[in-house]
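If you are new to this repository, start here. Below is one unmodified record pulled from the training split, so you can see the exact layout before writing a loader.
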Amino acid sequence: MGFELAKAFITVRGDSSRLRGDFAVMRGMTHAHINALNGVIARGVGLFSLYRGAMLAVSGIDLAGEMEQIAFETMLGSTREATQLLKELYSFARTTPFRFEGVISGARILMATGTPIKELMSLMLDLGDVSAGSGKNFRELAVIFGQVRSKGRLMGDEIRQFTEANIPILQVLSRTLRKNERQILDLSEKGQVSFKQLETALRSMAKAGGIFSDLTERQSKSVLGLWSNLQDSVQFTMMTIFYLLQPLTKGFLEFALSMTDSIQSSVLEMKDKINDFGLDM
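And here is the target side for that same chain:
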């Protein structure tokens, strides 16, 4: 009996020693992995700080300019023509009460619905006067105009949209076509008012003697117009700085991507080691 108790004591003591050894190993591995995790977290925090700072800077620069350059290159099939058009659109925004983003959007809509590039800036000047005089958003006006061009004729729905936008299209058509408003509506219902007739009437409002003549220029000199021009000027300056720093910016973004890959690999490696230790137990 005494021999059996002694044997059991030795066995328990041996198991306890091995268990203490296992805990020591586990504690060592835990410390190692905690240190590794701290390193990963430190790199992650540093990366996040760099990323946040970069994004704050980029948000002020507005990356839309780069995307628009690519979009216009696609539409025009020429980098040179796209660059020249963007300069003209910026000049237009800089001297009108319209923001650069709205001008860009309106130009894309007009081009997509068939406006020839050689007519674009002249058309935008006239639509700008109509927009400034009626209070209709420039982009939304471009959409209505583009709808009529796409259909090839002026229908009742577009007449309603022009009227709701405070643009007296019926009165002007009545004068240019020498018919009364009821007759104009009848013709539109039959699809007999062409896009060209609508374009002539609409643009006549912006010509000398038209009800919206030179309103874009006059509004650009108001307080709100000057504020809009200042915002566009600052935005364009920041975009110019961005283009100059573009190689550096791309380098940083590539570095950030490689860092996130490294952090992900470290986390997965630590997870595998912890899982392996659990299986060994």
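Two things worth knowing about this chain: DSSP finds 13 helices and no strands in the chain. Confidence is low (pLDDT under 50) at residues 2-16, 22-27, 54-62.
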